[in-house]
């Protein structure tokens, strides 16, 4: 195809039937910022309108004042009626405080406030009491006895203007009420807290009253039960002889007495028998009872022993002086014998008395044993009867204990009735507010600003998705399904500042600054054409677009100049017979394509030679547009002759959607370059043009983004070559 510029063998051939598959579309933050910048006017307009509207709505609201008071919840249940107070500690959780917060928020408290302050006659809480606009509607008459529905409706209106919340994790509960009047707001807040405390007291008093009534009925029944149980126990005692004194029955007391007497009798019997045994043992020892203890204690025996001693002494004295036959000795001996006989008689009498005493003690013991046995028999009968008595006494004691407990509780409840106090107290009364709480203009401004931002963002996104344009390589490959040929910057976005004169035009700047960024973009396009068909003799290249004014003619002219500057033989044909964009760039000509085809003018006479680049241009001259020129076989002959003489033949075709000539030219061309204006051509139009090209059987080599604002493209952050223009800007200028 190209005999002048060789293609390096290491350059990869661009696939003609396929290319890198398009990645799923993802919106990056940089792209979103670029969209916002591109539609800044729309965003600012919508944001300003929404900001003004929201702020006006806030400013038009009726001023409202909020009064705030607080109560302290005391979860300890203190009973003032009890002498010994044992207040319970604070609960492990704060559910008690949260419960009181919900009670304070309840409809019941709101209804109490409504009834107390007669808010159903207040137009602020009952709109039916308000007069109509401009006084056209007369307010309703005050209500004396409101029905249930009116009170509930007014309570709902009050609850909408009331808030209750807990102060952190403390036991303080804040209560706020809003109203159009600051004094009314303070009065409502204080009334709200007061009614809450009154509701607690009323509930407690009602509970105490109900408990007193129920306890009174229960006490009377329990008293009767206790008396009946005691009477049945007493009747049982009388019937079974279970009379008792000092906690014991008569039989038990009798047995106790007999046991005491029996113990004494046994001791006495043992003593008597012991004395008798000792006396008998002394007699057996042969002392004739002289050392018997009972005898030694006898006064008679002592007198006789004394007399015996005297006579013994006298007899011993007489025997010393006289013989045994002496009368005085005999008489004394007879007296001594008589005294000793009396002593023995007295001892025998004492022993007989000891024996009789022992027998009497044994008899008394036996008698007591018999009496005790009889008494114990009575106890056994009583014990059998006590089995039934114990149950009766237990029931009587239980009934008595229950009655006494209820009686004590009834006394406490009766005392509590006059000593009740609420479980909360007012911590701080609501003061009259000095400034309105709403409308909060600072909050309104913040909300207006937020709404403006949201509205601006929504407007930009809606506009972006409603009017979709192509901005990047990914957009072209994904939406059009054709290869991406490159990016051509808008000359105004890359032109150096201060550039004047002929060089200020894109086509002349391309020649005068061949190493600039603008010229480099066309060299990239040339490289794409070389790589996309390295072995194909595709000389006839048509350049078209979907709609007019997308830079088609300028692109054709600059591409042809770039190819010519590289040493190739290039011919540029202006096939847009209506606009004649290329012809306008070189100036009017008398002979052109129409004259060559229809008037058989010599081709060499019609070709215009660009001395700066060596480019040959076949302009579209003539005053009229011939009908169906490109369907003429002579036109094909002209194209073949140009292809034989030149390495590249560039056809500047008209837009594909509006002119039929573009379809014919696309079908005749070896390759078609399809131009899409960056961020301008509607997506539907671009897609329709590609469909038409495919229907014509055109070989679409690739799509080209034109008039790309490199700074704007960089803001979008799509990652195309123009995104990095800033990195190479100084490089291009230095090399130029």
Question: Any overview of this molecule?
Answer:
The protein is of the alpha/beta class and 736 residues long. It has 24 helices and 14 strands. The strands form three sheets. The chain has an eight-stranded mixed sheet with strand order 7-14-13-8-12-9-11-10, sandwiched between helices. A four-stranded antiparallel sheet has the order 2-3-1-6. Strands 4-5 form a two-stranded antiparallel sheet. A hairpin with a 2-residue loop joins strand 4 (244-245) and strand 5. The longest helix is centred in the middle third of the chain and has 90 residues, at 327-416. It is elongated. Mean pLDDT is 80; it is low at 1-22 and 132-136.
SSE topology:
Elements: H1 29-38, H2 40-59, E1 65-73, H3 95-105, H4 107-117, H5 148-160, E2 162-166, E3 172-179, H6 182-240, E4 244-245, E5 248-249, H7 250-284, H8 293-296, H9 299-321, H10 327-416, E6 424-428, H11 441-466, H12 473-480, E7 484-489, H13 491-494, H14 506-512, H15 517-532, E8 540-545, H16 552-565, E9 570-574, H17 581-586, H18 593-598, H19 603-606, E10 608-610, E11 615-618, H20 633-645, E12 648-652, H21 660-668, E13 671-677, H22 683-695, E14 700-708, H23 710-716, H24 725-735
Helix pairs in contact: 1-23, 2-11, 4-5, 4-6, 6-10, 7-10, 9-10, 14-16, 15-16
């Amino acid at each position: 195809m190209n005999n002048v510029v060789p293609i390096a063998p290491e350059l990869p051939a661009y696939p003609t039937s396929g290319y890198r598959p398009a990645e799923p579309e993802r919106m990056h933050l940089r792209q979103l910022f670029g969209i916002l910048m591109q539609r800044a006017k729309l965003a600012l307009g919508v944001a300003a309108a929404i900001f003004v509207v929201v702020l006006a709505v806030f400013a038009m609201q009726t001023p409202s004042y909020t009064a705030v008071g607080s109560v302290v919840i005391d979860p300890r249940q203190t009973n003032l009626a009890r002498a010994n107070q044992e207040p319970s500690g604070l609960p492990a959780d704060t559910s008690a405080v949260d419960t009181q917060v919900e009670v304070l928020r309840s409809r019941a408290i709101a209804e109490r406030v409504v009834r107390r302050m007669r808010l159903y006659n207040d137009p602020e809480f009952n709109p039916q009491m308000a007069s109509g606009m401009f006084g056209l509607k007369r307010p309703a008459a005050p209500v004396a006895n409101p029905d249930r529905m009116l009170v509930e409706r007014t309570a709902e209106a009050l609850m909408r203007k009331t808030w209750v919340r807990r102060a952190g994790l403390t036991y303080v509960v804040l209560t706020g009420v809003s109203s159009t009047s600051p004094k009314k707001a303070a009065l409502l807040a204080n009334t709200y807290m007061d009614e809450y405390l009154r509701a607690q007291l009323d509930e407690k008093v009602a509970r105490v009253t109900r408990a007193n009534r129920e306890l009174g009925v229960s006490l009377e029944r329990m008293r009767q039960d206790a008396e009946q149980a005691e009477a049945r126990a007493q009747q049982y005692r009388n019937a079974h002889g279970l009379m008792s004194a000092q906690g014991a029955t008569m039989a038990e007391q009798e047995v106790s007495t007999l046991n005491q007497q029996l113990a004494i009798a046994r001791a006495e019997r043992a003593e008597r028998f012991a004395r008798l045994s000792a006396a008998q043992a002394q007699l057996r020892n042969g002392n004739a009872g002289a050392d018997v203890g009972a005898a030694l204690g006898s006064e008679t025996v002592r007198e006789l022993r004394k007399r015996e001693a005297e006579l013994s002494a006298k007899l011993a004295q007489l025997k010393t002086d006289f013989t045994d036959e002496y009368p005085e000795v005999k008489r004394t001996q007879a007296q001594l014998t008589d005294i000793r006989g009396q002593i023995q008689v007295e001892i025998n009498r004492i022993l007989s008395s000891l024996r009789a005493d022992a027998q009497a003690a044994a008899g008394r013991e036996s008698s007591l044993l018999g009496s005790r046995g009889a008494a114990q028999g009575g106890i056994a009968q009583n014990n059998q009867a006590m089995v039934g008595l114990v149950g009766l006494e237990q029931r009587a004691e239980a009934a008595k204990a229950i009655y006494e407990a209820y009686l004590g509780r009834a006394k406490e409840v009766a005392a509590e009735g006059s000593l009740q106090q609420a479980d909360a107290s007012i911590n701080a009364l609501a003061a009259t507010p000095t400034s309105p709480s709403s409308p909060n203009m600072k909050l309104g401004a913040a909300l207006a600003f937020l709404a403006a931002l949201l509205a601006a963002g929504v407007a930009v996104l809606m506009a972006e998705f409603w009017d979709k344009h192509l901005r990047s390589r990914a957009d072209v490959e994904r939406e059009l399904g054709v290869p991406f040929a490159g990016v051509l910057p808008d000359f105004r976005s890359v032109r150096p500042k201060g550039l004047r004169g002929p060089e200020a035009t894109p086509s002349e700047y391309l020649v005068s600054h061949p190493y600039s960024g603008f010229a480099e973009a066309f060299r990239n396009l040339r490289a794409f054409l070389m790589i996309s068909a390295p072995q194909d003799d595709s000389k006839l290249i048509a350049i078209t677009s979907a709609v007019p004014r997308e830079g088609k003619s300028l692109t054709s002219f600059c591409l042809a100049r770039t190819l010519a500057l590289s040493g190739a033989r290039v011919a540029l044909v202006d096939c847009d017979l209506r606009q004649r964009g290329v012809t306008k760039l070189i100036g009017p000509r008398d002979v052109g394509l129409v004259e060559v085809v229809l008037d058989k003018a010599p081709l060499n006479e019609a070709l215009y030679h660009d001395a700066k680049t060596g480019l040959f241009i076949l302009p579209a001259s003539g005053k009229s547009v011939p009908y169906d020129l490109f369907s003429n076989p002579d036109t094909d002959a002209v194209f073949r002759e140009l292809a034989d003489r030149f390495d590249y033949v560039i056809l500047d075709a008209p837009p594909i959607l509006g002119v039929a000539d573009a379809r014919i030219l696309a079908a005749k061309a070896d390759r078609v370059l399809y131009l899409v204006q960056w961020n301008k051509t509607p997506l539907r139009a671009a897609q329709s043009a590609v469909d038409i090209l495919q229907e014509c059987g055109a070989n679409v080599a690739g799509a080209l983004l034109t008039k790309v604002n490199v700074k704007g493209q960089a803001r979008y952050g799509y990652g195309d070559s123009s995104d990095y223009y800033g990195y190479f800007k100084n490089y291009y200028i230095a090399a130029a």
